[in-house]
């Protein structure tokens, strides 16, 4: 990559004013055709000055805003001009130009996906191929440069046909931070706590796998021997690029089967032989990689994120081999490490097989009290969710028992509030100052604790009954506190929709009497009220509707409030309570019939 970077190159005042006026004119246009025409004229004036304009602090921002309006007709010559090796390298490494390069790649991806004929698609693909060739030729520089690394990641997104860049904290890493951040990060907590479906269901194949293969083959070559790949894994800018590469290759077992062992430390020749050859020879593609090396990567605060993504995308057979060679017997110890615990979470989040979950449970169940006490609850949450995904009743019961034993152990040593039931202990996990039923200040209930309780209550009743009974035994004040908190509210909804007796559910619904108007006034609480209304009997529905009618003016002031009132049929309720009651009786009978019929 050229070493001369335009950096904070500043254009003359006339050129800057021209772009400012063009942006102002564009903002005043509503017709997409007029916008495209204006942008086309600007691009014609840009001819030969693309890198210089893109590297200017002012014009680069304006150019970024113009890019979404660039037509296919003008996009092809612009990208073809920038796809010259030196220009693209300079643009990508510029502190301002790299953002323009990213936006151009995003636009290229959209145009490729919507090309109106094969000739257009072929011309756009040629540009994508040229840009890939440049990045591969300068892969070390692109991967390790603070600015160009972002461009290389965006190129992988275009190749994959979707956004595959790492989240702020990839994989399960958002989990423990969620307790501090209130709601947590979707990329970690939601992925870890999901309890249904096969991994393959969520996988989308890359749009251009041949370009992924081109990049992978370069990494598999001898030129990366001598520890250079490990340097990428430990590099603050290159490691996110490797994560993006693995995510782009998700579902392509042939690419991952070669690439993952090589990145973990396999010798070039061994990795190039591929998974197929190893199967015939009875050898593992991970042969020769030491346990200490992989566990060292797991403990590193940079490379651990690579391992998280690797766990998520690895083919099932390779994942099992990773456990047998590098993790078996070490899960509990790694679970307590500040960085490696996220790798353990990612491994658990990837499991589908009952036997693998059983093995993990055997290793982790004795360490669960220490995990809950030591703010490693994310591992326990991932283990519970993994047990739920198996559909194996025995595994689910064992996992819930391990959690209950851990909570009891915490109470016995004074690490959890005494007198709290199983469910309440989870909801105030890591929050000793909070007392369920007595909300104070702005502190919320435990996000992870609420997520774990939701998981438990979503399981079949053989596994969930003990926790469900503790929820039903709560006081009205405690239930209202739960309903007013996002995590607690989700747990109550899981309780009401779970495999439990109607008697238990109605106990909770009736304990909330007098609080439905208050709950219905918040976005989250309105969802809980709708669930109570749907699950309750006719008398319960009438009680809820009556409370909402008394507070209609307040509740109807928000969109979610109006949705709640419509869902409860409040207009019909006010018009004729008897007619409304008969309609609800029919709805309850129909719901019961469908439940019995298994619909």
Could you characterize the architecture of this molecule?
It is a single chain. With 599 residues, the chain is mainly alpha-helical. The protein folds into four domains: 1-161, Leucine-rich Repeat Variant (Alpha Horseshoe), CATH 1.25.10.10; 162-350, no CATH class; 388-511, no CATH class; 520-599, no CATH class. The chain has helices at 13-27, 32-46, 50-54, 57-66, 72-82, 85-93, 97-113, 118-137, 139-144, 148-160, 174-181, 186-193, 209-220, 228-233, 238-248, 253-264, 268-281, 291-299, 303-313, 316-327, 331-335, 340-350, 354-364, 368-373, 377-390, 393-412, 422-427, 447-458, 461-472, 476-483, 486-497, 502-511, 516-520, 523-535, 538-550, 552-555, 559-567, 570-575, 577-597. Helix 5 runs parallel beside helix 8 (118-137) and helix 13 runs parallel beside helix 16 (253-264). The longest helix is centred in the last third of the chain and has 21 residues, at 577-597.
């Amino acid at each position: 990559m050229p070493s001369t970077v335009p950096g904070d190159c500043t254009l003359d005042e006339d050129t800057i004013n021209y772009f400012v006026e063009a942006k102002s004119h564009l903002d005043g246009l509503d017709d997409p055709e007029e916008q495209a025409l204006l942008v086309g004229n600007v691009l014609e004036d840009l001819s030969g000055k693309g890198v210089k304009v893109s590297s200017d602090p002012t014009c680069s921002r304006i150019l970024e805003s113009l890019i979404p309006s660039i037509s296919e007709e003008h996009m092809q010559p612009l990208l073809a001009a920038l796809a010259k090796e030196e220009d693209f390298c300079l643009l990508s490494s510029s502190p301002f130009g790299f953002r323009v390069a990213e936006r151009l790649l995003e636009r290229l991806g959209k145009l490729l996906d919507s090309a109106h004929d094969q000739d257009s698609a072929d011309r756009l693909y040629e540009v994508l191929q040229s840009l890939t060739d440049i990045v591969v030729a300068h892969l070390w520089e692109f991967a390790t440069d603070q600015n160009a690394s972002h461009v290389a990641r965006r190129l992988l997104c275009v190749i994959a046909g979707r956004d595959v860049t790492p989240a702020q904290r990839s994989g399960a890493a958002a989990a423990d931070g969620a307790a501090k951040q209130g709601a947590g990060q979707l990329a970690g907590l939601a992925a870890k706590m999901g309890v249904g479906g096969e991994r393959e269901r969520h996988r989308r194949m890359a749009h251009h796998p041949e370009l992924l293969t081109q990049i992978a083959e370069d990494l598999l070559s001898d030129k990366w021997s001598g520890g250079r790949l490990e340097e990428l894994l430990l590099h603050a800018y290159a490691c996110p690029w490797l994560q993006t590469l693995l995510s782009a290759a998700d579902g392509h077992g042939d690419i991952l089967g070669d690439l993952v062992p090589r990145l973990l430390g396999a010798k070039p020749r061994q990795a190039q032989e591929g998974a197929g050859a190893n199967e015939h020879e009875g050898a593992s593609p991970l042969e020769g990689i030491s346990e200490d090396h992989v566990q060292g990567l797991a403990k590193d605060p940079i490379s651990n994120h690579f391992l998280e993504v690797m766990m998520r995308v690895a083919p099932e057979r390779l994942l099992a081999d990773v456990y047998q060679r590098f993790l078996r017997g070490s899960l509990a110890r790694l679970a307590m490490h500040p960085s490696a615990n996220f790798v353990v979470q990612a491994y658990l989040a990837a499991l589908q097989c009952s036997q693998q979950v059983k093995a993990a449970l055997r290793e982790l169940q004795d360490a669960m009290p220490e995990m809950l006490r030591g703010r490693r609850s994310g591992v326990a949450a991932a283990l519970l969710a993994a047990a739920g995904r198996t559909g194996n009743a025995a595994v689910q019961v064992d996992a819930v028992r391990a959690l209950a034993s851990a909570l009891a152990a915490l109470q016995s040593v004074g690490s959890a509030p005494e007198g709290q039931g199983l469910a309440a202990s989870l909801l105030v996990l890591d929050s000793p100052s909070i007392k369920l039923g007595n909300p104070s200040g702005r502190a919320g209930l435990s996000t992870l604790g609420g997520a774990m309780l939701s998981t438990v209550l979503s399981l079949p009743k053989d596994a969930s009954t003990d926790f469900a009974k503790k929820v039903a035994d709560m006081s009205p004040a405690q239930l209202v506190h739960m309903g007013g908190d996002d995590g607690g509210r989700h747990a109550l909804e899981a309780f009401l929709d779970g495999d439990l007796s109607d008697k238990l559910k109605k106990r909770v619904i009736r304990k909330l009497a007098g609080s439905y108007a208050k709950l219905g006034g918040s976005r989250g609480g309105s969802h809980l009220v709708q669930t109570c209304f749907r699950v309750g009997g006719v008398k319960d529905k009438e009680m809820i509707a009556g409370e909402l009618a008394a507070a209609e003016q307040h509740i109807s002031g928000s969109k979610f409030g109006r949705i709640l009132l419509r869902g409860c049929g409040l207009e019909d309720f006010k018009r004729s309570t008897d007619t409304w009651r008969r309609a609800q009786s029919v709805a309850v009978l129909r719901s019961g019939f469908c439940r019995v019929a298994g619909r």
